[in-house]
Amino acid sequence: EWEDRPVAAASIGQVHRARLRHEQVWVAVKVQKPYSAELFGRDFHVIDWVVRLVTLLRVLPHVKWRDGLVELREIMREELDFRFEASSTRTMRKILRPHGIYVPKVFSAYCSPLVMVTEYLDMVLMADYLRISREDPARVEQWRQENAVRPRLVARHLVRSFQRQLLEDNRYHGDMHPGNIGLLRGSRVALIDFGTTNFTEAGYLEKFRFFMRTLATGEFAKGADLSLMMAAGLPPIDLALIHTQLTRTLQSWAARTWVKDLPFHDKSMDNLTMEMMNVLLRFRCTMEWAWLRIHRASSTLDASLIELDPGIDYRRRTGQFFAGAERRRVKRALSAAGARRVVATAADVLPLPG
């Protein structure tokens, strides 16, 4: 069986509902639109020409334009070959199972560079939930009660899972916008569309992990130090001056998180990241693309959080994550070492701060 009318559509593909004859299950079939590769290639040539021009004219030379072009080329290659997404979906299905996040099963035998087949999920897309919440609040409230969906609990699940993906598993969904989040009964969550799945180089991730920890502990001067360490390059500048401004930016954001009546955007991680990037760019410091990838993933998730839990406290949630991560790490270390090796592995179980 095949339904001609697509259930979803995006820039280079569309999804149809179908039923596999042999397995006798309903599936979602993602099909790439004709000439997508050619259109991407044409656009890329234009972007390449623009990058060459701005580089030649030395427009914002501290911005790594060529590095951005390499990043874009890699994204293009992965987006246009659905085998990358199928592989990422299988990987994330394993990673997210302990998080309590559902990922649809991939039917690998039917996948190709232009076609991807996954389990069809009966769920409500977050995008539809948010739209109908604005149009018909009474209908949404009735649906929430019938399906035991609590918005604030869903928000906590999403934040906790994203932090684990980013800081613990080092494999994260890079495009968690409302169209890629599904709501299930009992406040459970499903994620789809793993075409943009990222990881962070180990050394950079360690710095970013320490930076996030400083937000929870209030060590803002140390956070400013780490943000400078995460910059790709520092020109000849007065480091004391930029360090002071970064520290003040962190302190100001932390103070805003304590005020419940302030708008969500004033207290979000997206707002903090943008303010810090503005300070760094004002001093002509070059940003790493790794931080920009993380920022993109965080900002797309905010589109759901602002409606689910506008009063969410990022500092508190970050502190809770690190407490939980420490418990999981100790549990894994004890399990691997065994009772007879507990003392021998104490240095791994209880490391000193860097």
What does this structure look like?
There is one protein chain. This protein is α+β, with helices and mostly antiparallel strands and 354 residues long. 57% of the residues lie in helices and 10% in strands. The protein is built from 14 helices and ten strands. The strands form three sheets. It has a four-stranded antiparallel beta sheet. Helix 7 runs antiparallel to helix 8 and helix 8 packs across helix 9.
Write the layout of secondary structure elements.
Layout: E1 8-9, E2 13-19, E3 26-32, H1 36-56, H2 65-79, H3 82-96, E4 101-102, E5 115-119, E6 124-125, H4 126-135, H5 137-147, H6 151-169, E7 172-173, E8 181-183, E9 189-191, E10 197-198, H7 202-217, H8 220-229, H9 239-257, H10 264-267, H11 269-282, H12 289-308, H13 314-337, H14 346-349
Parallel strand pairs: 4-9
Antiparallel strand pairs: 1-2, 2-3, 3-5, 6-8, 7-10, 8-9
Helix pairs in contact: 1-2, 4-5, 6-12, 6-13, 7-8, 7-13, 8-9, 9-11
Quote the distance from N terminus to C terminus: 58 Å
Shape: globular
Poorly predicted tracts of residues: none
The H/E string reads EEEHHHEEEHHHEEEEHHHHHHHH
Neighbour order of strands in the largest sheet = 1-2-3-5
Q: Look at the structure and give the mean pLDDT.
A: 90
Radius of gyration: 22 Å
Query: Approximately what portion of the residues adopt beta-strand conformation?
Result: 5-15%
Largest sheet: 4 strands, antiparallel
Q: What is the count of DSSP helices, taking H or I runs of 4+ residues?
A: 14
Instruction: Tell me the number of strands.
Output: 10
